[in-house]
Write a structure and sequence with these properties.
20 strands, alpha+beta, 13-stranded antiparallel beta sheet
Length: about 575
């Protein structure tokens, strides 16, 4: 934890060198030419509180109130517009002075607009509208906050980062005031400089109203210089701490063959199961006493789960006559994954013969305090969890742990370890990318979009690991629905590209044309679900669009949707 706090603080300080600070720099510098000596303190305190609060709780606020994210940004833009006008128009400044005077019980009575409380309100707006060039530490905190996992650790990390950012901001304002007071020319032209900063604040407010500020910040973050600054946090010490903090799905706990067991707690029961499949009766932990049990949390569109399933099903096939049982807990990520028929089709497709419980209400998921797809909990014959694995990989160690527990329970095990290939991606690939507004973060140029139907234009220059929309789309909290002439491009790095799709409500399949680098895909690069450059979406599931046969490369994928009403949920990569 101390390591993360130190690097978060340093990352905050280095932010002042980041190009992402440029859009708000005029607002920070305005504190040097307007207001009294207490104004910078107000700006800094307002920024620290606002940035920390909204980083951690913005998702929760939106969910509870239904207020669109952009509404808060527009409100902040209005505040900046008011303050910018007050720096330019003396009469307007007097009006604001009288308004603040009525609230002076909360602050100093002398010129509150120009003092601490005026600066405090400006600082609050900066915390709402500013998007830093996010490194791995703050990115992990934001991801945890998006799933309502706000803890003491995430609070301290965010606060430390914001304090680190605030320190150079304060030094700029404080040093600027001293320079202004000591330089006769600057002192003589203070009014002109003040009005210039007022114009800049108004311009930034207009950028907020049109979302251009987000486009600028996204572009600056994607520059090599902006990306290089975040490398301060990209080291083994930080990565180890982040794995502990949020359990990166691609990084399971590192164990070796001499340390197979990393847990020792009673196994929770299976509760709230909607329906049991592949069995005639409900299953309880008590009914499994005497057996070695592997509880596997999965969902059928999760590519990480799909790559894990061959190993899980193989272990069941090998050891189920030796006192071993697998219990699959299917906890859905998307709404259509609640459907029993869809789960049954997946059970058949992946040759699953062990019992599977539909955990549609996340009851068992929560009973295990689980957070990941896939997640495996290995339970010994006494009902004690002895090993936990999250994500892909380490299959030989899990199987060795299974054999060890079977031997401990009196079974004779002679089978050799599996030689199935580990399909866990070893190269750096594009991140999981959601198309619904709740978790959208890689749309270019604005990172995310609000709900509603609109016409979009494809971006000609697409940064790495980002996507763009063209034609008509309807954005909802959980997916994006195609309309007339709908197209999508994605600049990815991977060997395989997958997309969760749901066909339109019509009787015929939804048709999607697939292109790679502006050329129709062919036998050398089309995914297993694509034939002659055409994808037919017939059911709700994960579709393989691109297959580069083990070569992880960077390309631009383009999809043309011929069928309105097709629903897109999330890209995953392999």
């Amino acid at each position: 934890m101390i390591i993360l706090l130190i690097f978060a603080f340093l990352a905050g300080i280095v932010t002042i060198l980041s190009p992402c600070i440029l859009p708000i720099l005029p607002i920070v510098l305005s504190g040097t030419v307007s207001g009294d000596k207490k104004r910078p303190y107000g700006i800094i305190l307002g920024f620290i509180l606002s940035f920390t609060f909204f980083t951690l709780f913005l998702t929760t606020i939106i969910q509870l109130t239904g207020i669109p994210t952009n509404t808060l940004r527009i409100f902040a833009g209005v505040i900046l517009l008011i303050f910018g006008l007050s720096l330019i128009v003396p009469g307007f400044q007097n009006l604001i002075e009288r308004l603040f005077s009525k609230l002076s019980v909360l602050g100093p009575k002398a010129s509150p607009h120009a003092g601490f409380w005026g600066g405090f309100i400006i600082g609050l707006t900066i915390g709402i509208v500013w998007t830093p060039c996010v490194g791995p530490i703050l990115a992990s905190v934001i991801a945890l906050a998006a799933t309502a996992r706000v803890t003491t650790e995430t609070f301290l990390i965010t606060l430390t980062y914001s304090i680190g950012t605030a320190i150079p901001m304060f030094l700029i304002m404080y040093g600027g005031k001293n320079l202004l007071n000591k330089n006769p020319w600057l002192t003589k032209n203070t009014t002109i400089i003040q009005k210039a900063f007022g114009v800049l604040m108004i311009l930034f407010a207009l950028l907020i109203f049109t979302n251009v500020d987000q486009q600028i910040e996204a572009y600056l973050a994607a520059t090599p210089y902006g990306a290089d600054l975040t490398q301060l946090e990209n080291n083994s010490l930080v990565n180890k701490q982040l794995n502990t903090l949020n359990g990166n799905q691609s990084a399971s706990p590192q164990l070796n063959s001499s340390d197979l067991f990393n847990a020792d707690s009673p196994a929770p029961d299976f509760v709230g199961i909607t329906k049991w499949l592949n069995t005639n009766k409900p299953i309880t932990i008590a009914s499994l006493k005497g057996k070695v049990v592997l509880v596997d949390f999965w969902t059928y569109t999760c590519i990480n789960c799909i790559r894990t399933l061959p190993h899980v099903t193989s272990w069941y096939d090998k050891y189920h006559n030796e006192g071993f049982i697998v219990i699959g807990v299917h906890t859905p990520e998307f709404e259509f994954e609640h459907e029993t028929a869809n789960v049954q089709n997946a059970i058949k497709q992946y040759h699953i013969y062990y019992p599977v419980g539909q955990d549609n209400n996340y009851a068992t998921w929560n009973n295990y305090n689980n957070e990941y797809w896939p997640a495996e909990y290995l339970i010994d014959a006494t009902g004690t969890i002895r090993r936990e694995d999250f994500g892909e990989g380490q299959y030989d160690q899990m199987e060795l742990a299974i054999q060890t527990l079977l031997k401990q329970s009196g079974h004779k095990v002679t089978q050799k370890l599996d030689t199935l290939p580990d399909m866990t991606p070893q190269d750096q690939i594009s991140p999981e990318t959601y198309l619904g507004s709740d978790r959208m973060q890689y749309y270019y140029p604005s990172a995310t979009l609000g709900d509603g139907t609109d016409n979009y234009t494809l971006s000609e220059s697409l940064p790495q690991n980002s996507f763009s929309l063209g034609g008509q789309w309807t954005i909802t909290s959980g997916n994006a629905v195609t309309g007339k002439n709908a197209t999508l491009t994605y600049n990815f790095t991977a060997s395989n590209v997958y997309l969760v799709l749901n066909p339109s409500s019509g009787k015929n399949p939804s048709i999607v044309k697939v292109y790679l680098d502006d050329k129709p895909v062919d036998l050398t690069n089309e995914g297993t679900d694509v034939k002659n450059g055409i994808l037919s979406v017939t059911t709700d599931r994960l579709y393989n669009l691109i297959n580069l046969h083990g070569k992880s490369e960077s390309h631009v994928l383009k999809l043309e949707f011929d069928t309105p009403g097709t629903q897109g949920f999330a890209f995953t990569f392999g």
